[in-house]
Amino acid sequence: MQKVSDWTIHRLSSYHRLLSEFANEGKEYISSHELAQRAGATPAQVRRDLSCFGTFGTKGKGYLVADLISKITSILGIDRDWRVALVGAGRLGSALFSYKEFRKRNFHIVAVFDSDRHKVGKHWADVQIDHPDDMKSIVRQRKVDIGVIAVPADTAQSVANAMVDAGIKAILNFAHRKLFVPDGVTLRNVNMAMELETLSYVMTKNRTRR
To answer: Which pLDDT score is estimated for 2?
Structure first.
């Protein structure tokens, strides 16, 4: 299989959500033009993205919605359950834990950790908040696949180190700090401040053109 860019995966995830909308609307087949129009892409881009993973669709009929949903679900790996450990039981951690879309996409938070002794032992739904000192045993016991970091920047690297030591191979980082992980561990960063700065740049640039 050819190397696939992150942007292609992002668009594939978007197509998956849009296809579910088409299915809910009772659409059996859709064209690349219809999918592109709703995704804000071009038909050529849709076809190019899908071609990275094989041959899809029928000439003259388009894509069978149910079939394409099934295939993209498999490509994205969300045809199975993923067990997630969340570190940071603050406001951001609470919002992430409560985000229903994760569960819909088969990402289940099965462990929560926080170093605040006043939070340890409390429950979020059916998940107890534990201390990071117990991370290794809990991660292994609950067979965690993915770690999510929602702690202040100054402690993020130590949390990442603990996750790696516990055997976690994929980490999503919300802390505003560049983290370092060894080869074999996948790290993704979410920097909301940077995204807002990108928007402010575009808005400022647009104002200067007026």
So the answer is: 60
Task: Quote the tokens at residue 196.
Answer: 């807002």
What ranges do the domains of the chain cover? 6-75, 82-194
Summarised one tens digit per residue, pLDDT across range 136-147 is 999 999 999 999
Q: Is the confidence at residue 1, as pLDDT, over 60? A: no
Question: What is the pLDDT, as a whole number, of residue 198?
Answer: 84
Confirm or deny that 26 is annotated as ligand binding. Answer: no
Helix axes 6-24, 32-39, angle to 10 degrees: 110
Flag whether pLDDT at 27 surpasses 70: yes
89 known member of a binding site: yes
Q: Is 209 annotated as a binding residue?
A: no
Q: Does domain 6-75 have CATH number 3.40.50.2300?
A: no
- Ligand-binding annotation for 60, yes or no, is no
Q: What is the b/e burial string over 137-157, where b = at least 16 CB atoms within 10 angstroms of the residue's CB?
A: ebbeeeebbbbbbbbeeebbb
Q: Confirm or deny that 91 is annotated as ligand binding.
A: yes
CB 131 within 8 A of CB 138: no
CATH class (in words) of the domain with range 82-194: alpha beta
